[in-house]
Write a structure and sequence with these properties.
alpha/beta, Cobalt-precorrin-4 Transmethylase, domain 1, Methyltransferase, Cobalt-precorrin-4 Transmethylase, Domain 2, 2 domains, five-stranded parallel β-sheet, five-stranded mixed β-sheet, 22% strand
Length: 220
């Protein structure tokens, strides 16, 4: 069987006892970055595991090798941080495993966008998660959701973030914005305010680390 195991999004202590137990009992771990996974394994003194890289955009190349392993052994799929498949690789592998009658067991665990949503202070009853913003055509992309009556969440790069805030303002001029940065890490930070306020606050401030944007249009 293949276990889908979420890993900490920041603090290495944000992991379940069951996740540690499963990581200890399997022989093979398929991981997005073997170096990142080894840091986690070393922290919990988990030794003698065969780490096999499995990352975008080369997922399909690895699947035949992984299937051969899963015919004989139980294994774990992890990504660098958070829940596999959520803006991370894994979907293609799970699809093929199910087609080949390989059992999938998903462990619950951390996810950056859900953590940011709960901490945002915005309504959580109805939300839309868009993953990472595209590198091109952002205005047209965001405009498709202009009439969505709920909270919108997406990830962004620190290198494009400030420029993209201006695109957001064009589409959602009265949006209330929450910027969640470095969730569960030492420099965790939330910035909350209407779009004009956020642009002004962050204009001269350097932005680093992983960013989650939560917005609500016409929020009162």
């Amino acid at each position: 069987m293949l276990y889908i195991v979420p890993t900490p999004i920041g603090n290495l202590k944000d992991i379940t006892l069951r996740a540690i137990e499963v990581l200890k009992q399997v022989d093979y771990i398929f991981c997005e970055d073997t170096r990142r996974t080894k840091v986690l394994l070393d922290y919990y003194d988990i030794k003698n595991k065969k780490l096999i890289s499995y990352f975008s955009p080369y997922e399909e190349r690895k699947i035949p090798q992984i299937l051969e392993i899963l015919k004989k052994y139980d294994a774990v799929l992890v990504v660098d941080a958070g829940m596999p498949l959520i803006s991370d690789p894994g979907y293609k592998l799970i699809k093929v495993c199910l087609e080949n009658n390989i059992k999938i067991i998903v462990l619950p665990g951390p996810s950056a966008f859900l953590t940011a949503l709960v901490g945002s202070g915005l309504p959580t009853d109805k939300f839309l998660f868009l993953g990472f913003l595209p590198k091109k055509g952002i205005k047209n992309y965001l405009a498709k959701y202009k009439n969505f009556d709920g909270t919108i969440i997406f990830y962004d790069s620190p290198y494009r973030f400030k420029k993209n805030l201006n695109f957001i303002k064009e589409i959602y001029p009265r949006a209330y914005i929450v910027i969640a940065r470095e969730i569960s890490k030492i420099y965790e930070e939330y910035q909350r305010g209407f779009i004009d306020e956020i642009i002004s606050i962050l204009k001269e401030k350097p932005i680093k680390g992983e960013i989650t944007i939560i917005l609500r249009n016409n929020f009162k």
